[in-house]
Structures are given as C-alpha cells and as structure tokens.
C-alpha cells in the first residue's frame, strides 16, 4: 500500500488462522492434517475453533459439539489450553509492538493496527503486514492472514479474502469497488436477521446497498441506516484505539416471527448460549453474572440476571442458567421478538487482555 493522501489512515487487521486448532496441531504432530475441533464434544460442548480440515465438512466456531460430530464423524475433539493460547497471543502482540503502539485487540487471535506512523518508519503498510506475517511464522510456527486498507471495516473484510495464510490489500481508490462486490451478509455490523431483511428487499451485495438512498435505509433499518449507507461507500471513520477493559460479552438475536411457545423459546436460549460460550472461550471473558434479555412484540424490554460466587466456566451451567431465567418468566405476556444472553462482572485477571467485540458502534 503506497503512501496515502493527506488524512488517510493505514490500517492492518491481523487474524491468526484457525488459532486454537493451529496451536494444537503445532504442538502435537499426530493432529496435523486431521479434522480437529478445540472445545467440548459432549451434549453441551461447543466448538471454540475448528481446523481447516474440519471446516470443509461445515464445522464452525460456536457450533454445538454434537452437531459437529454429525457433520464430521472423524472429528477429533481437543481440550482447550487457554494458558498456552494466551502465551502465544502475547508473543504475537509483542511482534505488533515492534511496529506500532496503536493496537486494538479484538480477541486472542485478531487485532487492528494503525501503522500510519510506525516505529521503523516504513512507508508501505503492505510491507509492514508482510513483515509481521513473516515474523509470526518464524517465531511461533503459525500462520496469520492480513487485510491492509485505509479503514477498519475494509481491513477486516480484506483479512478474510485470502485465508489461510493470505494477504489482501485494498487501496483508497479501490474501496468502493471492493465493497460493491461484497455480499451484505459478510459486512461486519450486518447480522443474519438483517441480512435476510436486506435480501428480501433485493439487497444482496454492497452495490445493491449503495443503490438505496439514505431515507430508504432509515425507513427499513432505523438508526443503523447511516452505518450501512457509509459502509456501502467504503467509508468508516472509527479509530483504532488501544485496549479497553471489557465489561461484558453477550449474544442476542431478533426473530422474523415472534416466539411464543416454551419449546421454541427454550431452544433459542440454548442456541444463543452455545454461540455465547464460543465467544466467551475465544476472548477468555468469564463472568459471575448471567443476564437474560427479552424484547417483546410491543418493544418493551426486560432483563433478568443471576450471579454466582465464581465466574461461570461451564457451557452447561451457562445454558442451564439461561433456561432457568427464561422459565421464571413463562408464560410470556406476549411473543418475544428478541432474546439475548450475556455474562457480566467479568474476572479481569482472566479476560482483561481482550478488547471489546466488534459491533456496529465500535
């Protein structure tokens, strides 16, 4: 990436390739080339990370272990070693710090770097990304993919383009064309429900999104419209900021049809709990308080919580607590249009290394 125009930033997003699984395959040669999942393989187990050999079968992060086994009968489950992952993550961040102090970790395996002004005085962000990837390979035995661009949104999307062990550079003049080809479901900040709503309106790609004016987007997507309008044009003014102390981690989903029956509500809480556990383990953000959020059909919101003396470190306990909080509210006064589950009061000795999850407003 050549020196940018005045005022343009140079941003790199680094994403370690199948991080936990790659560490396990590095440390245990018998696992190399085999489909493995780091996490629990039992009825309440969740996949934290899957190797690329497992991903070809459809095994993904945050997937329940039982489903992963059905998709890939030869799947090998490996117990997570978060002390090792944190040590490797610290090693990788030490490499980042050779180039810049403006580092925003998102989890143990990915981070943004602002290298507009950098310690070695290298003019090209592409050269810096190449050097970082080389050092990671030489010093850790692992591979990383990188996206290089003029803002965070495009840099993160670019890092996914050529995985694994890939590099993608999107220069300032190419940002709009890059976004035009991007499926809306891949744009960070567009969740699964919103992506389906967009597709129902004929919006499949960034180009389709750019063709809609701001009033149309405001009519259909409310306060998020401005973000979508700018994203379709390759615009993102968020700064890379240094690590912040995470206060909570959560997952919530909005439904096309309001959920009414107990079976449907409990099944959704279980699914959200499995997804949340994947995020908790990825970011090592264990909390003492489990919080349930319900938004009703009339948009009224309630939250209910339960606190423990020690952080919740079991996916089974997380799901069980979520179900208990829900069942205490049944029968609901009306259908639920949104359910969410989160953990608060985090154990910062375990989770303070992590920055906040990427969200629409980050």
From TrEMBL:
Q: How is the cofactor bound?
A: Binds 2 magnesium ions per subunit.
Q: Which GO terms describe its molecular function?
A: damaged DNA binding; DNA-directed DNA polymerase activity; magnesium ion binding
Would the keyword Metal-binding be found if you checked this record's keyword annotation?
yes
InterPro entries from the entry? DNA/RNA_pol_sf, DNA_pol_Y-fam_lit_finger_sf, DNA_pol_Y-fam_little_finger, DNA_polymerase-Y, DNApol_IV, PolY_HhH_motif, Rev_trsase/Diguanyl_cyclase, UmuC
One matching Pfam family, short form?
IMS_C
Active-site residues (renumbered): 110
- So what family is this one in? Belongs to the DNA polymerase type-Y family.
- Names of required cofactors: Mg(2+)
Q: What is this protein called?
A: DNA polymerase IV
Residue span, UmuC domain: 11-191
Coiled coil location: none
Gene name tied to this protein: dinB
Query: What EC number(s) has UniProt assigned to this enzyme?
Result: 2.7.7.7
Residues the record annotates as the site (Substrate discrimination) are 20
Q: Which HAMAP family match?
A: DNApol_IV
Domain of life (superkingdom) = Bacteria
One Gene Ontology CC term in the entry = cytosol
What NCBIfam families is this protein classified in? PRK02406.1
Instruction: Please list the residues that bind Mg(2+).
Output: 15, 109
- Which reactions fall under this protein's catalytic activity? DNA(n) + a 2'-deoxyribonucleoside 5'-triphosphate = DNA(n+1) + diphosphate
Keywords of this entry: Cytoplasm, DNA damage, DNA repair, DNA replication, DNA-binding, DNA-directed DNA polymerase, Magnesium, Metal-binding, Mutator protein, Nucleotidyltransferase, Transferase
Q: Where in the cell is it found?
A: Cytoplasm
User: Does the keyword Membrane feature in the UniProt annotation?
Assistant: no
Q: How does it assemble?
A: Monomer.
């Amino acid at each position: 990436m050549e020196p940018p125009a005045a005022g343009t930033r140079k941003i790199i997003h680094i994403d370690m390739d199948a991080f936990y699984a790659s560490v396990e395959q590095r440390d245990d040669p018998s696992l190399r080339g085999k489909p493995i999942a780091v996490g629990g393989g039992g009825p309440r187990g969740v996949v934290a990370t899957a190797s690329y050999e497992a991903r070809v079968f459809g095994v993904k992060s945050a997937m329940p272990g039982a489903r992963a086994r059905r998709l890939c009968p030869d799947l090998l489950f490996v117990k997570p070693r978060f002390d090792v992952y944190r040590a490797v993550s610290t090693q990788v961040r030490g490499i980042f710090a050779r180039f810049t102090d403006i580092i925003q970790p998102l989890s143990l395996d990915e981070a943004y770097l602002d290298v507009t002004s950098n310690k070695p005085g290298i003019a090209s962000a592409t050269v810096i990304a190449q050097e970082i990837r080389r050092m990671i390979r030489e010093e850790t035995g692992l591979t990383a993919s990188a996206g290089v661009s003029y803002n965070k949104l495009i840099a993160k999307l670019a890092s996914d383009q050529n995985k694994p062990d890939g590099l993608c550079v999107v220069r300032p003049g190419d940002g709009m064309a890059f976004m035009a080809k991007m499926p809306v479901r891949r744009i960070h900040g567009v969740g699964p429900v919103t992506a389906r709503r967009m597709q129902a309106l004929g919006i499949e790609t960034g180009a389709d999104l750019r063709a809609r004016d701001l009033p149309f987007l405001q009519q259909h997507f409310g306060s998020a419209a401005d973000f979508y309008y700018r994203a379709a044009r390759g615009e993102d003014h968020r700064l890379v900021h240094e690590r912040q102390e995470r206060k909570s981690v959560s997952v919530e989903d909005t439904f096309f049809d309001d959920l009414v029956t107990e079976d449907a509500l409990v099944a959704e809480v279980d699914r959200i709990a499995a997804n949340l556990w994947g995020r908790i383990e990825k970011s090592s953000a264990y909390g003492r308080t489990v919080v349930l959020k319900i938004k009703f059909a009339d948009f009224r919101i309630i939250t209910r919580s339960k606190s423990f003396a020690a952080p919740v470190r079991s996916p089974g306990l997380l799901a069980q607590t979520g179900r208990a909080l829900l069942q205490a509210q049944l029968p609901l006064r009306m259908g639920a249009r949104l359910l969410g589950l989160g953990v608060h009061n985090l154990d910062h000795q375990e989770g303070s290394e992590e920055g906040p999850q990427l969200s629409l407003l980050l």
